[in-house]
Amino acid sequence: MARRYDSSTTTFSPEGRLHQVEYAIEAINNAGTCVGILAKDGVVMASEKKVTSSLLAPAKSSEKTYKLCQHAACNVAGLTADANILIDQARLRAGRYAYQYCEAIPVEQLVEHVCNYKQAYTQYGGLRPFGVAFLFAGYDTHYGFQLYQSDPSGNYSGWKATVIGANNQAGKSFLKNEYGAKKEDEDEKMKGCEE
Amino acid sequence: MDTVFGVEFDGGVILASDQTNARSILTYQTNLDKITELSSHSAMGISGPNADLVNFSEYISKNLALYELSNDGLKLSPHAQANFCRGELATALRKGPYQVNIMLGGYDTVKGEASLYWMDYLAALAKVNYGAQGYASSFCLSIMDRDWKEGLTCDEAVGIVEKCIKELQVRFLIAQPNFIIKVVDKDGVRTLKFGADPADN
Question: Chain A residues with CB-CB distance to B under 8 A?
């Protein structure tokens, strides 16, 4: 039923869906889990480290967490190669904002820029969408500590706690029950999520 | 020819400029307002050819308005505004320069502090407690050097500004009968005094 409308990224199906975007989101559901929790004095993020082969050289840097600028970082779930492109974009944007205004970029503007870049691949060019979901964490003087989630569609939203990657549904239900119950025990919640 | 200067006080900035619009041997107008409001809590006193003055100030103020619209009402701080302004002057410098010299005064509503910036047509930027552009600097800086101190009140700062205006009117070769004085503080930008009403047509 979806067959005729699912190969072009830039075509709506009769039901009003963009199948390529949905398939991209599916790809992320097989990737390593990332959890993010917003506390009043910071943001905690944790990611699953997937060991695929004992022959792999020990990683010098993380394949999940990336610093975007002095006051913002992100966690990745999905195709690492795709993520690298978007992280470059984010770092460039943060740098260019600082060059233009001599100030730190507000976190939401950084997120929106990356998302606008992703959105273009769902509307023109005939190129496939990015198979990456992000958790952005950052601080600015306008909204304090913030946590954002974005997906291949280019949509983003702010969260108090959220999960991306494998088992994200289970993770989110867990957080729904636990978040706000005992705010101090962030570590406990993180551990619960990992399970 | 144009006189533009400013003095920072505790909680705000006073900007002053002459109101003469002239070229060569002709005076076009004597009630020009050379201090344009950039945003709710910042203003720019500009000297230079009227075309560049208007073009540049409108370009900056409209871009600042666009930023606020695009970012849910978020305001750029005076520091960010000044650096943005300087960046635009710098980019235009080797393409089609704006021949404007600026004194930019603003109040940062988030930090609760005022700031004054000196910016020239070559895109040099300096944060100052007081400053003047053009010939006015030769007359006014020594007065400001002597009288300015940390923690001035608005009235004391206006006093320094009026001293400078008197000095110019006595000693400066070019007659500048009218001056306009504006203040930028926590309540925004407002006109304190003018020699001739800019609204008169």
Answer: 99-103, 106, 108-109, 141-142
Contact (CB<8Å) A100/B79? no
User: pTM, whole model, 2 decimals?
Assistant: 0.90
Per-residue model confidence as pLDDT tens digits over A3-15: 777 778 888 999 9
Cα separation, B151 vs B9, in Å, equals 6
Instruction: List, for residues A127-139, the tens digit of each pLDDT value.
Output: 999 999 999 999 9
User: Taking CB atoms and an 8 Å cutoff, what residues of chain B touch A142?
Assistant: 74, 110
The secondary element (H helix, E strand) that includes residue A69 is strand A65-69
pLDDT in tens, B8-27: 999 999 999 999 999 999 99
Q: Say what the ipTM of the complex is.
A: 0.89
How crowded is residue A113: how many other Cβ atoms within 10 Å of its Cβ? 18
Give residue A2's pLDDT: 65
